[in-house]
Batch of 2 targets.
Target 1
Amino acid sequence: MITATGKSILKGIAIGKVRFLAKKQAEIKETAADPAAELKRYEDAKALATEQLQGLYDKAVVEAGEEHAAIFEIHMMMLDDDDYNDSITELINSEGKTAEFAVKTTGEQFAETFASMDDEYMKARAADVRDISGRMVNILTGAETGPAGSDEPFIIVAEDLAPSETVQLDKSKLLGFVTRLGSTNSHTAILARNMNIPALIGTEISEEWDGKTAIIDGYNSCIYIEPEEELLRTLDEKRVRDLEQRAMLQQLKGQPNVTLDGREINVYANIGNVSDVGMVLDNDAGGIGLFRSEFIYLNSKTFPTEDEQFAIYKKVAEMMGGKKVIIRTLDIGADKQADYFNLPKEENPALGYRAIRICLMQHEIFKAQIRAILRAAAYGKVSIMFPMIISVSEVKEAKAILEECRKELLAEGKEVGEVEIGIMIETPAAVMVADELAEEVEFFSIGTNDLTQYTLAIDRQNPKLDHFYDSHHPAVLRLIDMTVQAGHRHNCWVGICGELGADTTLTETFLRMGLDELSVNPGGILGLRKVIRELDLGGAQEPETEAPAEEKPAAPAEAPAEENPAAPVESPEPEPEKQAKKGRFSLFGKNKNK
Ligand code: PEP
Ligand code: MG
């Protein structure tokens, strides 16, 4: 048995086979001495690829229906295409190329031919050729190791996982992951929390573990490879107990998020993909508080079109059945990179060209997304949220672009819906001008991941700094408190969508600050609900410092609670009573009410 330690992202136990993700693409040799042997390698790889595709097809039929599964049928047909096969065998037989070189070259040529066609359908086939050729090259070079394409659930072990890689993983089979790099605040860690699966970072990993049975023990921050019988039994029992506890939380479904003394708060969910909505509904979230739309871009080989985005947003809005869906506009850049954006290499990407900065410089990209969101809003209760805001002028500009898009869509006779407009508060600058910002929008959602990074001047991606990355730092908590008070002074509801929102050691603090919403990973909803329902804030306290709520002209007085920014959402109570119930919280060691 081998034991390796790391930093645990989520307490829990995962037991399964390791799938080692080779980071570097294997080198592709160009020539081979024995064409017959290469042909045999090619035929074997093709048989394996067909088997994998058949497995994916069968699974997709069950999970998403025949229409969605059809793509794998197309891939199988392409693998068998005469022209494709002739080109590959010709390169192997006549030019003495290796099987992988022949596949790669043919794939690139065919993809280029498809891409240059006028017909949109044929154009789109370029990505499919690349896909099947990539699959074949991976098999031939051994770049794809472990039980790839098998039906067995697996534990991923990798150097690091970029967000663009995590979106490709078959999450239904992912039991947990272990990486050597990554920090507890990286997007990989967020993925683990979102999926509610154990994960370790900062672990000395080995390729030798591939295919072996392992246990991730998230309680003790370690992974055991080929564990002893006794340990396997004990930890499996613990895993089953965890599942039982989770099952008990299920009883809280349908219950309100209300404290013993009657303070209610919205608990929403964070998602990155349509496929996460099932988990959101399963866990009975009140809405989606953060849809990280950049994952659509990361999952795409080129800019997703307005129509592609519209289909996704519409689907999410419809699936949520009238519950709020807050779509954050593109937050690409920093660690979230997609090649086709051609973003410049920067010394300090976290302080660089990212998120709203890109959108305000590249209107075509921004407008395609805004138009898609406005159109989807006709099918549900959709809000739009702009990330990485530092100043009022950015918000004004973003709103002007939104209005331009609305007018264009109406002129084109397209259906559009009303959207609530909000911003993320994730820079200290935004907190300092929160009063002015609140005049512009209907809600704030505090991104504590970045707010901590920018306040403490600590790169959230740097594992060496994990120890210093302290979201409980008084500076961060005071900024959150300042944001809530500024928002409420201007009838702007305030939530948290960063990871801190799920930290139940702070739930009472957040309720006392007066936060209206906490948006957390879907797996954290019911646990948070349990904590809220067991809290007693000691009844009503009227804050001295809070200015009376002003009426915001944009909010119709008769609007239902969730529509009206003056009223913290989802409460049937009239506003003054609700406000009176908000206890106050002091970060300065004494209660401000005294
Ligand atoms: C945040 O910064 O807290 C946030 C929610 O956004 P992201 O983690 O996607 O940067
Ligand atoms: Mg952020």
Target 2
Amino acid sequence: MLIIMRTNATPEQVSRVVARLEKNDLQAHLSRGEERTVIGVVGDIRHLIPDRFARLPGVERIMSISRPYKLASREFIPKNSSFPLDGVTIGGEGIVLIAGPCSVESRSQLLETAHAVREAGAHALRGGAFKPRTSPYAFQGLGEKGLELLAEAREVTGLPIVTEVMSPEQVPLVASYADVLQIGARSMQNFPLLHAAGKSQRVVLLKRGPSATIDELLMAAEYILSHGNRRVILCERGIRTFTRTTRNTTDINAIPALKARTHLPVILDPSHSTGHWEYVAPVARAGIAAGADGLIIEVHNNPEDAFSDGGQSLKPERFAELVRQVRVIATAVGRHVTQPRTAMNPRRENAVTSHVDAIR
Ligand code: PEP
Ligand code: MN
């Protein structure tokens, strides 16, 4: 349910509505637009009498949200939401590029790759320290040692780091190193993990499950948003279909379909969606043409020797070429690739400065 406040509603009137909702065990999520404040009501509203709220001072009208996800919906926040990640805006006009190895393997591998992707224009460094592997015998990641190496790479390149967290218990540890918590495709419906990531208030990169529908992805995002954490990036990373020609099938349709339904930023991972380095650039270009707000790309200084996903990892020079191509496609669709931060600034805390505020 949405409570639309009048354009001239006072902060006291807004607070009064919020207090009344909280008294009824409901959550109030505020969206402060340029003209008016909209209150998203979340919780069990079956016994709520909308008329009682409609009569409160400052309230213009009550609307229901037709979608099963509420806070993620464009009905709640019609404009694209955007937020800063270490000085770079995610979800704005500019396109952002996250790049780096599938797994953190060693200091030299990570630092060499990190410097190369930064040179090429990446805005953030990816790399898994805790790896979800199909086989329990495959390389599982370096764990905390990997997080330490990522922190060192951030220190020397200035790039914020994106890394996967696999369980709710791991969230405090990973959040103490990472700028962005990645929730992997296999964990998209790990509900305790979604709750913990929401509570952490870190930026979350949520990947679509290999067999998840668009609505299921948005419902997963809703878990994170329900904790007042508005900084969620959605990622299409390919779905499981009958074809075995590619590792997954890139659901390009998901990009405009998500953008139509949600205000959250949407990025594409053409590395996992194709599984072949040769297809990464063409599909990345298609993603940008389809309206993605960014890309996450696997890049390795020496893909032949990679511990995981070498076959889909780009060599640094190929990534640099891809960045040049993406710039051209971005311009063709009226956008641009965000200027990378050149200064090696020390890390800053990420503040929410989007046009919306969370009040819980
Ligand atoms: C990854 O990013 O390395 C990864 C494991 O991705 P996904 O969860 O999309 O398979
Ligand atoms: Mn990978």
